[in-house]
Specification:
The chain is mostly beta strands and 205 residues long. The protein has 3 helices and 8 strands, in the order αβββββααβββ. Strands 1, 2, 3, 4, 5, 6, 7 and 8 form an 8-stranded antiparallel sheet that branches.
Length: 205
């Protein structure tokens, strides 16, 4: 299948708009072991220095990991949580507006056998296809995304986003983001976008 990359202008839109429009789009990773493709089913928007759940809230992180968020949208922001799992984010907005969209879940489209191999447990257990990418950590393992992809252009040759399927408004449900209780009142913002008809979500909404 041929995948048509999203233009750079797509990422310069309002972050909530990008989070909604990413539903149904394809995430493609051309790896040395083969092509991995998934269809995005769940996203979360993080809206800059005024959003208490956002990594750029009030200031840049001391370790410099959020520096990429201050550049033009369309770059990959990958970070580690709990010292174990990677999370893949799409930087949005023009330079100086440090915002991003977390890709929480997706549906496997191409390279499923390789995804299963990457997700295989130490005991040799292979996840079912519907469970391959249902969570940001699972998604990064199955898509072979790590800190090595930090800062990559998302219309480049190896890791990129492409046009996919149209997701009708009737299929989309919004709700609070997950695991951001520390954000106080901002934890209740309806910045999580789910394609509820796919069945490929990290949790119910």
């Amino acid at each position: 299948m041929d995948y048509i990359k999203l233009p750079p202008s797509f990422y310069l839109q309002d972050t909530l708009t990008v989070a909604r429009q990413l539903l149904g789009k394809y995430l493609v990773h051309e790896t040395p072991r083969g092509k991995l493709v998934c269809q995005i089913t769940e996203t979360e928007a993080y809206c800059g220095p005024s959003d208490k759940a956002c990594h750029s809230y009030q200031r840049r992180s001391p370790d410099g990991r959020t520096n990429i968020m201050y550049k033009d949208g369309g770059l990959s922001y990958v970070y580690l949580i709990y010292g174990i799992y990677h999370c893949f984010n799409v930087v949005t907005c023009p330079t100086g507006q440090p915002e991003a969209v977390l890709i929480r879940s997706a549906k496997a489209i191409e390279g499923i056998e390789l995804m299963q191999e990457l997700r295989k447990s130490r005991k040799g257990t292979v996840p079912k296809e519907k469970d391959l990418l249902t969570g940001p950590g699972k998604l990064c393992i199955a898509m072979d995304i790590s800190r090595e992809q930090y800062g990559e252009s998302l219309w480049g040759d190896t890791l990129y986003l492409a046009y996919g399927v149209d997701v009708e408004d009737s299929s989309v449900k919004c709700g609070p983001r997950i695991n951001v209780d520390y954000a106080e009142e901002d934890a209740l913002l309806p910045y999580r976008f789910c394609d509820v008809k796919t069945g490929h979500l990290s949790s119910k909404i």
